[in-house]
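## tool: complex_structure
## caller: assistant
## args:
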Amino acid sequence: MKLNTSHPIFSAYKKNPKLFDEIFNKNGEVKQIYTKLFELYGGLSVEDFVNLNDKAKASFFNQGITFQVYSEAKQKEKIFPFDLFPRIIAPDEWQTIEKGAIQRSKALNLFLWDIYHDKKILKQGIVPVSLLSSSVNYLDQMMDLDPPGGIYNHVSGTDLIKHSDGKYYVLEDNIRCPSGVSYVISNRTALKRALFGVFNHYRTHSVTDYAENLLDILESVKPHGVDQPTCVVLTPGMYNSAYYEHSYLAKSMGVELVEGRDLYVENNFVYMKTIKGPERVDVIYRRIDDHFLDPFEFMPDSSLGVPGLFSVYRQGNVCIVNAPGTGAADDKAIYTFMPEIIKYYLGEEPILNNVQTYHCSKPDQLQYVLENIPDLVVKPVDEAGGYGISIGNRLTKQQIQEVKDQIKANPRKYIAQPIMSLSVHATYIEDSHSFEQRHIDLRTFTLLGKDKEFVLKGGLTRVALQKGNLIVNSSQGGGSKDTWVLKK
Amino acid sequence: MSLRYQIEYSTTNIYENEAEGAKWQFLLVPQHLPEQQLLKNTTVTSVPCVIYTGINAFGFETLMVSSRHSFTEFSLRCTFDILKEELNPFDLPMKDTDSQYQIINSHEFKVDHLSYIRSTSLTHYPSHQELGFKFDRAANILDNLIALNKHVHDLLEFQTMVTDVNTTLDMILHQKKGVCQDFTHLFCALARGNAIPCRYVSGYLHQGVGFTGELQMHAWAEALIPGTGWIGFDPTNNILTNHHHVKVCHGRDYRDCAPIKGVVYTSGTNSTSYNVQVITQQ
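## result:
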C-alpha cells in the first residue's frame, strides 16, 4: 500500500531515507503489521486526534502518573508524554528479544555470584579486575554472602535499540532498581481508553500480568524455613521521581508499600509496624539505592533505610531484591564485556548484539577515540539518566577539544561507541499537529527467581521528542509509546 | 603462659532534648580466637532495652541495643573476662623472600585480597605525593613491615584532640600528629601501596606496661604475609601485637570498626563520653 496523502494526520509525514523507519519500508510502503493500524489512524482528522491526545494527557495527570527531574532548581511534577500511536513488535522478532534478555539476565546473575565468591572470571583475566577495583558499587560487604535462591538481579531492565541495519542492539543493562514498568501498564490502559477499537484488529499480548509474576518471583526467593512469605515494597517516599510506580506495584501485588521508618529490626528479624502489631517481613523489594539501605553498614546519615537490616540479610533472615552490589555489573565498562561474560558462564553465543565499544582506559583504544571524536558517542561509565553524553557529530571544534581534555584527564571514566542510528517511528507532535519521525528505543523487563524466569511481553518504548535527538531518557524530555507484542 | 584480663567498656550519651527511642550497634565483644578466649560477658544499660547479638558485614559479632523508651541520658557498661595465650613472635612459618614477592605480585593473590588492597577514603594516600615508604625488595616482607611500623611510629607524634574519625591522610601527613587510628590508617595505606593486603583492627590494649593509648578502644593493623598469615602491627607503639592486645574486629578502615553506631530519634545536640579499663587478673 502506497502512502495515501489524503490521510490528513499523516499528510506532513516526511521520510528521511537514511533512517530505519518502523512503519514504512524502503519503498515508502506501510509494513504489513502496521497496515491495519495505519488505516484506522489515517481515518482520523487532526481535530479528532488533538482531542484524544488532550484526554489522554488529562487522564495521566488525574491518576498522578507523574515524575520529577532532579537537576531542575524548581521541582515540578511532569507527566511523562504519551504518544497515542503504538509501536508493534512481530512475534518472531519478539522471540529473539525475549530469549536474549533471559540469556543476559542469567549471565549477569552468574557473573555477580562469581565476583562475590570465587572470582574465577577475574582470576582468568577475562574481565579486568581494574574495572571492579575502582568501582564503588563493588561492595566488600557482599563478599561470600549467599543471597536467598542464589539470585542477585531479580529485576533487570534491558535497553535495546534497532540500528539502521534493522538489527537490535543492547545499549545497557539496568540491574540496580530499573524503573518504568508502571508506564508500560498505564500506557496500555490509556490507549485502551482513548481508542479501544484498535485492539479488536490485533492479537496483542497483555501486559497486566507483570505484578503477579513479580510477586511470584519475590516469593520464590523467600528466606529458608519460611512458608508463606510477607513481601513489601520499600520506597524512599513520595518525593522520589518514581513514587507512582512504587505505589502501583505494591497495590497491584497486594502487598504493603513501606518507607524505612515503617520497618525495624529486632532479634535478627525485620518487622513491619502495623495496627495489629509487628509483622515479620521476609522479602523486601526495595526501590532505594544500596548506599541508603542501612546506616550501620552504608551511609551513616541515611534516614531512608532500616538500621540493622544488613545484619539480618547476612544471616539469611530476609531477602533484599535486587541484591545489594548489583551495580558492579551494570557499569558501562562491564557492559562491553557482556559477549565474553555470556560465553564464559553459559557457553553460548550472545543472542542480542552489543554495540562495539572502545575503552579509554586502554592506550591504543584511547588513541583511536581521541582521533575519531566526530564519529563517536562518548559516555561516562558511571552516570545514569543520559547525563554527560557527548555525541561527536553534534559538537563544534571547541567542544571536541573540551571532550578530548576531559577524557585525557580521566580515561578510566569514559567509553566511546560508534554513533548508533536509532530507528524512527511515526510520533504525533503537538507543535506541528502532525506525525513526524522520531527516534525510539525499547526497555524490556526481565524477572529472575529461584527456578523461574519471566519477560514482560511488551516494554517501554521511549521516544526522543525533540527532532533529531537520540537521547530518549524521560529526564531529558523523552516520551513513550504503548508497545504491542503480537501473538503468533 | 596465659593471662587473664577483665575489660570494662562504658559509654554515656547525654541528649539536649528528650530522645524518643534509639537503635545502636556496638562492636565491642572480643573475637573468639585460638589465642583469645571470652570467658564471661555482661552488658548493663541505664534505660530498659532489647539487647541481642547480630553480625556486621564482615562477620563480626555485634551487640544490637534498641530502646523504645524516652530518655535524655543513656549509658551502657560491658565487662568481658578474657583469657589470652602468649604467642612466640619468633615462631612464625616464613617463606623465602623471593617466593613471598612472587605470591604478592601474582594476579590471583591480588584478586583474592582486593578488599584489603584497594584504598578507602580514610586510607587514601594523597595522590599528589610520592608513597612515603617503599619496600626493600632484598628484604623479607616481615622485616619490611617492621620497618614500616617504625617509620609510621617515628613520623607521627601521638596527640589527642587534633584529629577525629573523619580525618584524612592528607591532613594527618600535613600535621604529623594523631591518635592510634591515624597511625593505623597511615600504616594500612603504605602497606597497601606496596601491594600488601592490610586491614584495620579495633580492640583493647592493656596499657599497664607503659604502652601509648588512651582510655578508649585501641587500633592497630594486620598485614598478610604469604605463607605466614595475618600478622598484627601496632604502629602507635612500634611493636608487633602480643598478648596485651585483645582483638574485637577488623575491616577496611575505622568506619567498618566504629565501636558505636546509632540512630537516635531526637533533636538538638548530644555529648558522648567513653571509658575503657583493662585490668590484669592473676
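## assistant note: Residues 92-185+202-346 of chain A form a domain with the Rossmann fold fold (CATH 3.40.50.11290). The mean pLDDT of chain A is 90. Handing back to user.
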